[in-house]
């Protein structure tokens, strides 16, 4: 799929996803899932801003809305970037290796692009994780009828981070630069440690407000 995912009808994206075509794949799905989480955050803000009972936190809600929209735009870009990097990597694997020089050039290209293929899902995980503090605040400061949407956003964030992490790891396994591998794994671990507890804490807030 060469055209931007954002310019495709949803049905076409799902058909491509279910086909033999290698893209969109797991990396793009992770980014799109994160973008949907950000969209839900923005929606809840839109439905809460302007309500008299939330006047005291309206400034904070507007800031959350702005941040969510920035993250949504980034995650949408990352969905397309994941496809672009995959296409570059596929092309690198097709480079000639007839001579030793050819083989060396091919190997270097594969290593360089595989590094990018690890960086893109890492950025996806980072962008999605940045939604969690927004959700914490929003879960306590939104209309009760839309608090479940905050819960859905949080669960999508967890799916995005964990899914993107898998895409990071599979590319790290093919890299020879062990310094980069260790640094990237450390960054990934920082995102994953405590993720479940943070998500569960927000879901507990959501369920508490739903039952009130």
TrEMBL record:
Keywords: Coiled coil, Transferase
GO MF annotations in UniProt: transferase activity
Domain of life: Bacteria
InterPro entries per the UniProt record, alphabetical: Cyclodeamin/CycHdrlase (IPR007044), Formintransfe-cycloase-like_sf (IPR036178)
Coiled coil: 54-81
Domain Cyclodeaminase/cyclohydrolase, residue spans: 11-189
Protein name stated in the entry: Formiminotransferase-cyclodeaminase
Organism: Chloroflexus islandicus
């Amino acid at each position: 799929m060469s055209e931007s995912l954002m310019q495709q009808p949803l049905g076409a994206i799902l058909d491509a996803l279910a086909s033999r075509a290698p893209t969109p794949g797991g990396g793009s799905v992770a980014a799109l899932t994160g973008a949907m989480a950000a969209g839900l955050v923005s929606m809840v803000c839109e439905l809460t801003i302007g309500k008299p009972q939330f006047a005291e936190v309206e400034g904070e809600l507007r800031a959350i809305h702005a941040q969510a929209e920035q993250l949504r735009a980034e995650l949408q870009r990352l969905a397309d970037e994941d496809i672009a990097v995959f296409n570059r990597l596929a092309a690198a694997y097709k480079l000639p290796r007839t001579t030793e020089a050819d083989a060396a050039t091919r190997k270097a290209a594969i290593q360089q692009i595989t590094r990018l293929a690890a960086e893109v899902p890492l950025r996806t995980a980072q962008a999605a994780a940045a939604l969690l503090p927004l959700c914490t605040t929003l879960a306590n400061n939104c209309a009760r009828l839309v608090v479940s949407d905050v819960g859905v956003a949080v669960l999508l964030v967890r799916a995005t981070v964990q899914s993107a992490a898998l895409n990071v790891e599979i590319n790290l396994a093919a890299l020879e630069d062990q310094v980069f591998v260790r640094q990237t794994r450390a960054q990934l671990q920082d995102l994953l440690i405590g993720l479940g507890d943070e998500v569960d804490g927000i879901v507990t807030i959501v369920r508490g407000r739903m039952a009130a």
